[in-house]
Specification:
The structure is a single chain. The chain has 269 residues and is α+β, with helices and mostly antiparallel strands. The chain has a ten-stranded antiparallel β-sheet, with helices on one face. Helix 1 runs antiparallel to helix 2. It starts with 5 loop residues before the first strand and ends with a strand.
Length: 269
């Protein structure tokens, strides 16, 4: 059921998609089997926003005007989010996601008008809450080719853990396919460069968050909460570092680009 501000979806945690995500992320060993827990953040492969081709916007996302109102701004970007993992979803089990748009805020930035949209999701398995998630989205106008390039922020260099990483165009395509994300900036080079003004394909913010989540869970021996914020885009031709250092009872994490710029920050416990 759907309305202007909320919707509810019911799915079965599909073992085939779990195996596909295991392969797409390059995980070693056997993927989780039916009856076992779903790894952190893999629910992105299970809950899809499905729309007919005629209902997609120019960028490949479902047109606004339904669950997310039409804000008159054509470009969508991922700003960040937060997650609380209460218990694992179970592979093969019935799961329900209840979603709501809780805030829309309009602002004017250096690049022009912006709209910030906050969406919450509560995901349950067998009627028990498993994951609470907040997603922060930003909508903006097309880029002005004459506008000055935004200044990047330097990333910290005081990490205690550093893991060098890369992504390929195949990685980007497979992650888009597994999350049913039609956003063309991740796989359509001509669109990304000529329409949205990027120098290359954009690496998914959630894919970078997934890699930080995996690092945090490994270092901490588990994960209860994770909050992340995108700072600048990373492109398909760039390597990057996953960085972390202790912060109280948890970790402060970040993604550092090859030129030293800050790509993403995160906090985990």
């Amino acid at each position: 059921m759907k309305n202007a501000s909320g919707q509810t979806e019911i799915v079965t945690i599909d073992p085939v998609r779990v195996r596909a995500m295991h392969a797409a992320l390059g995980k070693a060993g056997a993927p989780p089997q039916e009856g076992e827990g779903l790894p952190h953040f893999w629910h992105w492969s299970q809950f899809w926003t499905i729309a007919q081709g005629a209902d997609l916007g120019r960028d490949g996302h479902p047109k606004t005007g339904g669950f997310i109102p039409d804000l008159g701004l054509p470009r969508r970007m991922w700003a960040g989010g937060s997650l609380t993992f209460t218990r694992p979803l179970i592979v093969g089990a019935r799961a329900t996601r209840s979603s709501q748009v809780i805030q829309i805020e309009r602002k004017t930035g250096k690049s022009g008008p912006l709209a910030f949209v906050t969406v919450t999701h509560h995901i349950s398995c067998d009627d028990v809450l498993c994951i609470s998630e907040r997603q922060d989205l930003v909508y903006r106008d097309d880029p002005d080719p004459n506008a000055p390039k935004p200044q990047s922020r330097p990333a910290p260099k005081d990490e205690t853990v550093c893991v060098a990483q890369t992504v390929t165009t195949t990685d980007l395509f497979r992650y888009s396919a597994l999350t049913f994300n039609g956003h063309r900036i991740h796989y359509d080079l001509e669109y990304a460069t000529e329409i949205e003004g990027y120098p290359g394909l954009v690496t998914h913010g959630p894919l970078l968050a997934q890699r930080l989540i995996d690092l945090a869970a490994k270092v901490l021996g588990g994960l209860e909460t994770f909050t992340f914020r995108a700072v600048s885009p990373l492109f398909h031709f760039e390597g990057f570092d996953l960085c972390a250092k202790p912060a109280g009872a948890g970790l402060h994490l970040w993604v550092r680009g090859p030129d030293g710029r800050l790509i993403m920050t995160a906090e985990a416990q």
